[in-house]
Amino acid sequence: MRFALDASQADGPRPMPPPRKLRALFLSDIHLGSRACRSDRLIEFLRRHRADVIYLVGDIVDGWRLRANWYWPAAHDEILRELLCAAQRGVRVIYIPGNHDEFLRDYCGTHFAGIEVVDSTVHTAADGRRYIVVHGDRFDRLIHRTRRLAPIAHRANLTVIAVNSGFNRMRRLLGLPWWSPLQWAKHKFKTASSYLGDFERSLAELAHQQAVDGVICGHVHHAAIHEEFGIRYINCGDWVESCTAVAECQDGRFEILRCFGETRRSAQALITGEARAA
Q1: Range of 79's domain?
Q2: Does residue 216 form part of some domain?
Q3: Tens of pLDDT along 140-161?
Q4: Which helix (H) or strand (E) holds 206?
Q5: Is the terminal CB of the chain with fewer CB neighbours within 10 Å at N or C?
């Protein structure tokens, strides 16, 4: 799906299209409490989409960052309000903690204001396929080897993200589109080191063990849909760099939704759906 409003041709404010209706929406790695969180884009995205069920697939709150330096702007409260309002409307909201919000794993099996907290769950798609939904950090072999260094690496990552934001402000002034050298470097490095392949293979093994048709996860900040390991692997991406989510449409198709554009230019923002499932 693609929609855009050309503000230069409008005489005044024009109503936005009605929210897109989805069967399920999967969001991961939002990192509320971190300055890297693209809350401006996520608020707009949530208002443009309505789903019967919303899965929050880990690292929604960045507990690591909050412990180091408290940061919680009004926009992060607004995101929580959008999710709580969805739960009040009757939307089923399921929260699966990750490594950055692992403090919530002590509360699995409970509800907070209508939001269910679970360690993992199984989503049944419209076509009857079953998917195990997990954050994925427990299947990251690298993170277990370097757990003590993880907070240091996270702080270094935030510094690089800040540099990346400055780089893209310059590109915007030159009329160039957003481009993330951080994502490019991560992808090149992780591909070369077989990091992503090992992660995806481990989750494929989990799906086979659980006798399900696929897995839906987050953690690695790399949105993807493929069937390379004999099951359908779906990764939600993140709201730090790529600003992506995964949606199940009413007909059972899965799409990667990518959000581009700045909030102050929301009339020209593009939200695209990318179907890559086999």
Answers
A1: 20-274
A2: yes
A3: 876 654 455 455 555 555 555 5
A4: helix 195-209
A5: C
In a domain, 106, yes or no: yes
Of residues 266 and 100, the one with the higher pLDDT is: 100
Q: Are strands 224-226 and 214-217 parallel, antiparallel or unpaired?
A: unpaired
In a domain, 101, yes or no: yes
Q: What is the CATH number of the domain that holds 57?
A: 3.60.21.10
- 102-119 exposure pattern, b = at least 16 Cβ within 10 A, e = fewer: eebeeeeeeeeebbbbbe
Beta bridge partners of 124: 130
Angle between helix axes 181-192 and 195-209 (nearest 10 degrees) is 70
User: By C-alpha distance, which of 239, 234, 245 is closest to 200?
Assistant: 234
Mapped onto helix, strand or coil, the DSSP state of residue 1 is: coil
Q: Are strands 115-117 and 92-95 parallel, antiparallel or unpaired?
A: parallel
Give the dihedral sign, CA 207/210/214/218: negative
State the CB neighbour count (10 A cutoff) for residue 91.
17
Angle at 43 between CA 152 and CA 1, to 5 degrees: 110
In a domain, 7, yes or no: no
